[in-house]
Amino acid sequence: MMMQGKTGLIMGMANKFSIAYGIAESLKVNGAKMIFTAQTDYFKSKITDIAKDFGGYEVIPCDVSKDDEIEKAFDEMLNITGPLDFIVHSIAFSDRNELAGKYYNTSRSNFLNAMNISCYSFTEVARHSQKLMPNGGSLVTLTYYGAEKVVPNYNVMAMAKAALETGVIYLADDLGEVGIRVNAISAGPIKTLAASGVGEFSKILEFERHRAPLKRNVTQKDIGDACLFILSDMASGITGEIIHVDCGSNKIGVKF
Ligand code: NAD
Prior knowledge:
The chain is α/β, with parallel strands linked by helices. It is built from seven helices and seven strands. Helix 5 (about 155-175) links the parallel strand 5 and strand 6 (about 180-185). Bound molecules: nicotinamide-adenine-dinucleotide. The site of nicotinamide-adenine-dinucleotide (NAD) has 26 residues, from helix 1 and strand 5.
């Protein structure tokens, strides 16, 4: 029960296949209570029943691309839950038409939108987190290996993740003095709504499975349990890290 007595916010659960769902499961098993935000009313209706199992709080609407929506959601939340101990940011977006083919065909509008939703939103979450976590706490975002090395079709999302990862170290430095730790989990590929938008995703799954020392793809539970550790007091000295949870595949180059 590593999270007994702790309450947190989960942003980015779309359904039971979401990475955020796996994270919420691991946290729940270990005693945490959670409140959720949803991008739209459609997603809110999809996750309202699921959210009941994790603390019973009402799902708060929050489209992170809209000015002031994060601050408004956080204010509402503070009234409902009181101070929080952790926040999970599990959000990304790109036009799926641009997650295939050459990266240089990325449009300016999709580049900016992908950066806005997938990267800038975490900066804004971090800024406002001080109000929600006056006693310190822990922030985690989700990234992918495509930020480090070329992965076919990941394209603009790789730019957003590279900026997100750099943001993690700057935010860790900014927020360390108020006792807020900031880390990212670089998750191996896992079939979700967002991932299905990446061209030839099943080939990426197969390639990573072949490369991985553990000879398999990651599961929601693998990612959830690693996130549990990094959000818990067990990781009290860890901040500014990109932690790979990918069955070791990022350590392997070519494998015949
Ligand atoms: P998912 O589709 O289940 O979750 C993505 C979430 O982003 C959805 O809940 C969606 O509503 C939310 N979102 C998109 N635009 C938003 C907006 N404007 N405002 C608020 N929310 C918005 O997919 P997932 O794979 O669980 O993705 C979660 C995170 O994990 C993403 O950051 C993704 O890049 C990252 N990730 C995924 C994989 C993978 O293979 N699935 C691997 C590494 C990292």
